[in-house]
Amino acid sequence: MKAAGRVERVALSDDDARALRRFERLLIVLVLLLAVVHGRDPAWPFVVWAMYARSYPPPPRRVSETELRLVSRDGEVTHLLPGRLFTQVEIDLARCVVARAFAQQPGAEQYRAALLRKLGPLLAERDAVEIQGWTLSWTADPAAVPPFDLAAPDEEILLGRMRVPADRPGAQAALRGR
Amino acid sequence: MVAVIRRVVQGARGWLTAPEPRIAGRMGLFRMIYAVFYLWHLSWVDGATLGLLPDAVWQPVYLLRVVPLRPPSALPGMLESCLVVALLLLLAGLWVRPVTLAVLLFGTLLEAFHNSFGKVEHGSVFLVFYLPLFMLGSGWGDTWSLDALLARRAGLAPTSPSDDSWRLALPMRGVLLILVLLFFSAVFAKNVRGDWLTAPDVVTNLLSDKNIEAVLAGLRPCPLWPFVVASPLMSASFRVGLLLFEGLFVLVLLGGQVRAAYLAAALIFHALCALLLVVTFTPILIVYALFVDWQKVVARVAPHMRWLVDFLEAVPSRVLTAGVFALAALAGWSWNLTPTLRTTLQLGGWLDWRTIWLPVLPLAVVWWLRASLGLLKRR
Fold this sequence. Notes:
The complex is a heterodimer. Chain A is α+β, with helices and mostly antiparallel strands.
């Protein structure tokens, strides 16, 4: 048997040669597409990997985060950070959805509908009657580990609150509160 | 010049047409692992909720700009359900060729939709696009599949799992070439487009950023952070080491134990990045599974699986086909109606983008040690 790394000349049948040519053409097309679109993000799936190529500004001294609080019928509060809302990749989108759901602006209803759908099982599990949106802030020490204490924010600002409708739509993903 | 090009082409063809041990069985088993992994990945994706978001956050990728209208809000959820059906049929190995095409189309459209809200996920491009694309014309349904069982019952010659034909290995090599190219693009981006080597604070700022992200995600920050800050040498080593690692990824094309050792090292690198630095590149995991000799692994446990083979042999073909299709359809229908399937795949929420690396890390270390020892013995 010939090892995959060693190069040898082999005689191919017509069918094998055709299969190989098709495969080579596919590879060439893929490489050309990657080159033509410069691997830019909107050209997905023909993206290249930047892998943290850009430089980073110094970390902020002031860190803020939006937080959802689910208030149950018996007054118990479940804290939920945006990272638990969608996937970790979509954390910025989750922050945006939470912030806009509590803003007094056109379109807020759509963000609220998305939130209610996403939180469906957790709202039912915790018997939640109200959802609150908060902005929390901390003073960070970038040289320390951890850089701040998540449980002790310097400032908490209530963005808004909404009642959980009795006929809330069902949702699918399991969410865990903090 | 012409002679040099001819030699390069001959060398490339020799590499592409080299046999790969037990590739027929490996590809069949990989197909099943791919389907399960994709279902797990999909369990975290929520297209139906994203479909409800207003146009203000809609930033379509080029692929979705072909149609000027935003897809109806119900479409992502329907695509998810169709993809679940296709993946379950792929897992069982029923109608593998058309089902692979369905996985490619539904998966690409769904991920394009998912990537149209301001953030493009780079790690999923193999899972969603390259793997099903290369597998379209492959024989990954020739073994460990209902298609193979039904073909054998129809009197067709079966493919042996120990078959080492290069044609079956072509998709694997295509994926490897694209992987090398993308790792090389990372080196290019860091040096030409970015300032990885020239900006002195790039690593310390990156780690600070990741530490803050970790705390906000309720995770432990990187314990290496104080050492990196205290030592400019460590920061420089990190920068140069990463560039070397990405730049030398091309070594995987050497094959054999070199490929195994480098891929295992890459897997350890990804695992450490996920566990220590909150780097979300988890869908890439499936690419590495393509290079594990699953046929060898299964050969060790096969004697204990005899009951399953006996059971499948006893079931009539029509019952098998109808049963598998009915189960897949039921799963697709219930995917967005109840959380049961998703939470089962996520082991009750425990198996997420980060925790999946916990069992992978020790296995990757064992793989790396075995490959490295194999390399040393050969010398």
